[in-house]
From TrEMBL:
Organism: Microbispora cellulosiformans
Positions of modified residues (4-aspartylphosphate): 50
InterPro entries in the cross-refs: CheY-like_superfamily, NreC/VraR/RcsB-like_REC, Sig_transdc_resp-reg_C-effctor, Sig_transdc_resp-reg_receiver, Tscrpt_reg_LuxR_C, WalR-like
Pfam families, sorted: GerE, Response_reg
GO molecular function ontology, one term from the record: DNA binding
Protein name from the UniProt record: Response regulator transcription factor
Domain of life: Bacteria
């Protein structure tokens, strides 16, 4: 599903996916409220979400989507890569953050990666996350949890796999976020990969 308040942008994005065999645009929305309504009926696997829209903005829509449809992956597609915008989006729990000047192939790859449970960040966003001061590396157990996150496992699955409680999984992730200086699972995976930790 494409969510953007500019019809021209939505048309352009739809055109980029028109002849891609494994990706289908199932819905378009012009703001966050419309996106939430359409998510119920269209059931998209991935949402490409603009950040700045009238009514309910991108971050507000992402937060509500995460609550009502946690299985839907959201990739931010915006013209803004300021630290504040990135931090708010990451904290809301996005699967990726791309800029609108991303080439067509990168958009296709981002949708596929997000659908498979992976994380995607624009280079400028990744380097901004990387330039934060480094804290101690995560412990071996924390990295085990993060590896499972990178494979797309939910907390419940991670708890089952590692024979620990969901609360313990959440605690490990909280420590990982603090040590890597990030605020979301997607950002943690990307930063850990960049540093060669996983």
């Amino acid at each position: 599903m494409i969510v953007d308040d500019h019809p021209v942008v939505r048309d352009g994005l739809r055109g980029m996916f028109d002849h891609v065999a494994d990706i289908e645009v199932v819905a378009e929305a012009s703001d966050g409220f419309e996106a939430l309504a359409l998510a119920r009926s269209a059931r998209p696997h991935v949402v490409l979400m603009d950040l700045r829209m009238p009514g309910l903005d991108g971050v507000g829509a992402i937060q509500r989507l995460r609550e009502s449809h946690p299985e839907i992956k959201v990739v931010v597609l915006t013209t803004y890569d300021t630290d504040a915008d990135v931090a708010r989006a990451m904290a809301a729990g996005v699967a990726g953050y791309l800029l609108k000047d991303a080439p067509r192939e990168e958009l296709h790859r981002a949708v596929r990666t997000a659908a498979a449970g992976g994380a995607v960040l624009a280079p400028s966003v990744a380097s901004a996350l990387m330039s934060r001061p480094a804290a101690p590396d995560p412990s071996p157990r924390e990295l085990e949890v993060l590896r499972l996150v990178a494979r797309g496992s939910a907390n419940k699955e991670i708890a089952r796999t590692l024979l620990i409680s969901e609360t313990t999984v959440k605690t490990h992730l909280k420590h990982v976020f603090a040590k890597l200086g990030v605020e979301s699972r997607a950002a943690a995976v990307v930063v850990a990969m960049e540093r060669g930790l996983i």
